[in-house]
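Dear colleague,

Thank you for sharing your sequence with our group. We've completed the structure prediction you requested, and as agreed, I am returning the results in plain text so they can be pasted directly into your records. Please verify that the sequence below matches your submission; if there's any discrepancy, let me know and we will rerun it promptly.
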Amino acid sequence: MNKVYLLTGGNIGDRQMTLATAKKKIEAECGRIVRSSALYETAAWGNTRQSPFLNQALELETLMTAKQLIRKLLIGVCGAAFPFQPGLLEFSSPLGR
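Please find the predicted structure tokens below.
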């Protein structure tokens, strides 16, 4: 069993619902969530002309390797598409829509 710490966050739409949906999908598809932090609101950085983020840390137990987990999180859970920009990693996820 592997122990993983995930930092989740979002700033689009109903942020609290987005994080709750993410937690359910992570637990259903990746492993057991052992603990979760409180929700924290943080200001955006980099591109500061956007809404503040709601963030949460999760402790997860999984049988997946790191590579398997990253793939499952980004593609399976989030349905991510990657428009890369120099010096910036962004992805669009349907969880908050």
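Summary note from our side: The chain has a mean pLDDT of 82.

Kind regards,
the structure core
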